[in-house]
Specification:
Arginine methyltransferase involved in the assembly or stability of mitochondrial NADH:ubiquinone oxidoreductase complex (complex I). This protein has helices at 10-15, 29-39, 47-56, 85-99, 106-109, 113-125, 143-155, 158-163, 173-183, 263-271, 286-298, 354-364, 389-396, 410-413; strands spanning 2-5, 23-24, 45-46, 133-137, 165-170, 193-197, 214-219, 229-232, 240-247, 252-259, 302-309, 324-329, 332-335, 347-349, 382-388, 418-425. By secondary structure, it is of the alpha/beta class.
Length: 430
């Protein structure tokens, strides 16, 4: 969830009108009309549903497109052969211009070393008396899966590799196929790897779940989860949930504010103990809550590794924890000023408040309860750890592999706005 209120800044107060409805003129009217018909019909929809469709619509969603969202490097970057930062940036610029894709994930840019660091963290923590079971949510091109399986094959006891299973839960059919091809480059991986093309936040897709210890990996997943938007006119006005509607006579989209009624939004606000007296910065993505709740129900003994943006610079969309909405055309990237301008042609990604992520994780595991609940039932307390990317890789990875000749290390030096979150169950519930 991201949130807005009038008195945050002068910039915000100039954008909100007295009727509290904002209209966004289309950048390309024909394209706007096409996608608004698919995403927003005759009835208004919640912001989370709009974002979900803009990103994951089977035909028009950003991640459903075959060739422009997630990049795949033909070969690993030889960092040790680069002179320094300038040489690295020139190399990266050349790759982007040749690829005509929007972005490369860190696991792709630093393959195989990024995935190897994650694999080492798993091996140090996992109870290897059980078969190693790994689930990856949103596996992208399959680079992480292949890198982890490669590392376990080469560094773990043979029985661990032979008995392991790796399941990718991927909502994009095109990316699911790419993952199979990537992992299949090592023949022995194929019998241990499978892709389930479905929405990980849909509880029914998990069936009876997994009752044994397992690992869940989410890399750059939280930032692309659909978020809701709540709005307050000022610090003392009640929160309202935001809907998106289509104004037929003008063929544009606008925001509509309604009293809080959606149970998911209300429940999320309860979890973070947000009321009219508290800071707007307490608001949080209800979709993150939904996904975590599903995972804890289906995989009650899971351990979790998540990596994502802790903040985003130069965001032009107004609001606390507002998203960056970025598109790429003819090799050039540009940002939209509103999430409503993204209709399948742009990535929409949000910063993650890791303190609130921990709170959600503890709540969804059954340990942390809202203060108003009287139930004494408590699930297993979880041991959690938050590390910035450089600290994580220095502890579990091989940072010398991503260092240039002059000592510059893009993995350690350039990802100051990303963090890792590790969460494992423990029987200590006191």
């Amino acid at each position: 969830m991201f949130s807005r209120y009038h008195s945050t800044s002068k910039k915000l107060s100039t954008l909100f009108h007295r009727n509290r409805v904002i209209s966004f003129e289309p950048i390309a009217p024909a394209l706007q009309a096409h996608f608004s018909t698919d995403i927003v019909g005759d009835e208004p929809i919640l912001v989370r549903d709009f974002v979900h469709s803009a990103l994951y619509h089977p035909k028009h969603g950003y991640f459903s497109q075959k060739s422009r969202s997630v990049g795949v490097l033909e070969r690993s970057i030889k960092f040790n052969q680069l002179e320094g930062r300038k040489a690295y940036m020139n190399h990266l610029d050349k790759i982007y211009k040749q690829s005509d894709i929007s972005w490369f994930t860190p696991v792709e840019l630093f393959k195989p070393w990024y995935a190897h660091g994650i694999a080492e963290a798993i091996l140090r923590t996992a109870n290897l008396s059980f078969p190693l079971k790994i689930y990856e949510i949103g596996g992208g091109s399959g680079t992480c899966a292949k890198g982890i399986m490669d590392y376990i094959m080469l560094n773990a006891p043979e029985r661990v590799y032979n008995s392991m299973s790796y399941t990718s839960v991927e909502i994009s059919p095109s990316l699911a196929e790419t993952q199979k091809q990537t992992v299949g480059e090592v023949r022995s991986h194929l019998s241990k790897f499978r892709v389930q093309c479905r929405d990980a936040a849909d509880r029914s897709g998990w069936g009876n779940g997994e009752q044994q210890p397992c690992w869940v990996i989410m890399l750059e997943v939280l930032d692309n989860l659909p978020h809701d938007l709540v709005y307050s006119e000022n610090q003392i006005s009640p929160w309202k949930e935001v809907w998106v509607e289509k104004q037929h006579e003008r063929k544009i989209l606008s925001e509509l504010y309604k009293p809080l009624e959606d149970p998911l939004i209300k429940r999320c606000l309860e979890i973070v103990e947000l009321d009219n007296k508290q800071s707007v910065s307490m608001a949080r993505s209800v979709w993150s809550k939904k996904l975590l709740q599903v995972l804890h129900e289906a995989l009650p003994k899971m351990s979790l590794i998540a990596s994502d943006f802790s903040f985003l610079p130069d965001v032009s969309v107004p609001g606390e924890r507002a998203p960056l909405v970025s598109t790429k055309k003819d090799g050039r990237s540009s940002d939209y000023n509103s999430y409503l301008e993204a209709k399948g042609d742009a990535d929409i990604f949000f910063p993650t408040d890791f303190w609130l992520l921990e709170r959600m994780d503890h709540y969804c595991s059954g340990w942390l309860k809202p203060h108003e609940e009287k139930s004494s039932k408590r699930g297993k307390k979880r041991r959690t750890l938050m590390l910035d990317t450089s600290s994580f890789m220095e502890e579990f990875g091989l940072p010398t592999k991503t260092r240039t000749k002059d000592g510059y290390n893009p993995l350690l030096d350039d990802f100051k706005n990303t963090k890792f979150y590790l969460s494992v169950p423990t029987h200590n519930i006191k």
